[in-house]
Amino acid sequence: MPELPEVETTRRGIMPYIVGEKVMRVIVRNKHLRQPVSGKLSTELVGQRIHDITRRGKYLLMYADTGSVILHLGMSGSLRIVSKKTRPGKHDHVDIIFENGRCLRFHDPRRFGLLLWTRADPLQHPLLKNIGIEPLADTFNGDVLYKKSRGRRVAIKQFIMNAHIVAGVGNIYASEALFLAGIHPLRSAEKIARLRYRRLAESIRQVLHAAISQGGTTLRNFVSGEGRPGYFRQHLKVYDRGGLPCQTCGAPVRHILQGQRSTYYCTNCQR
DNA sequence: AGAGGTACCTGGCAGC
DNA sequence: TGCTGCCAGGTACCTC
User: Fold this and answer.
1) Residues by CB within 7 Å of nucleic chain B, which ones?
2) How far is the CA of A226 from the C1' of C1 (A)?
3) Which nucleotide's C1' sits nearest to the alpha carbon of A34?
4) Which of A38, A78, A117, A159 has its CA 20 to 30 A from that of A249?
5) For domain A4-124, is the CATH number 3.90.1210.10?
6) Catalytic machinery residues of A
7) Domain boundaries, chain A
8) A231 touches strand C (CB under 7 A)
9) What is the third-level CATH fold of A142-266?
């Protein structure tokens, strides 16, 4: 479900309700996520205040008094702010309940998500310390991509979806950014010139910013922290548009599989 | 080191 | 209606 724009939308949606608030109780109904939810999450987090929520790639970091919660939504996860009296549904695995009566509810049917408690710097956690550059940071540009791509024979789409290269670009926005940049998704990363990487970096930033401004993309079931769907779906140029005419040239959008993931592109506009 | 495949898990939908 | 197979927004880990 969530790529960078959806995670960022979630972050912005939940922050006003829980930053500065004190945790009263943690309920873990199902601890079997990507890694088991540690009992320390409940024992240590209770009584602490949340000071800030940041994002690194697709990870959310909730900073509390003596440690942090590392949270990932996986393929199907979402976070909602509900009243603590709201009945939990089938896949509502974890609740973090605050003094103000609000509840941060983690919902994840496929359970590829993650909730960890750490007392150390979360950015130094093994899952996070090797994540690549933030595409929305000032330091991200085509030259960075160009340098990292030398000697990389993988297809460019898989290259930009590699979280150790760029953080947060998932399957939807990889296809979209390549379309905007006019680059064929099967092209080998090492065979793309510096100038084209500059255009690609700009396209990645552009599509991520645009998606965030629309509250992300809802294909099936993404909802923000406040329960709203994302409205970027109607702005998608190629993703999930297989067989439909390219909005630039009219040729049918092609759908292929790359590393078991769907890729969409225009054979005419992307070279 | 890089690349490719596999595993984790549930639900929805198309096709029979 | 019900079964089967495939697909889905992610990523870590294994092998070669």
Assistant:
1) A 32, 34, 76, 90-91, 109-112, 151-155, 158, 189, 220, 259-260
2) 38
3) B8
4) A159
5) no
6) 2-3, 58, 261
7) 4-124, 142-266
8) no
9) Helicase, Ruva Protein; domain 3 (1.10.8)
Protein CA A151 to sugar C1' B1 (Å): 10
CA of A43 to C1' of B15 (A): 50
> Which residues neighbour A213 within 8 Å (Cβ) at sequence distance 6 or greater?
none
**pLDDT by position in tens, chain A (length 271):** 699 999 999 999 999 999 999 999 999 999 999 999 999 999 999 999 999 999 999 999 999 999 999 999 999 999 999 999 999 999 999 999 999 999 999 999 999 999 999 999 999 999 999 999 999 999 999 999 999 999 999 999 999 999 999 999 999 999 999 999 999 999 999 999 999 999 999 999 999 999 999 999 988 777 788 888 899 999 999 999 999 999 999 999 999 999 999 999 999 999 9
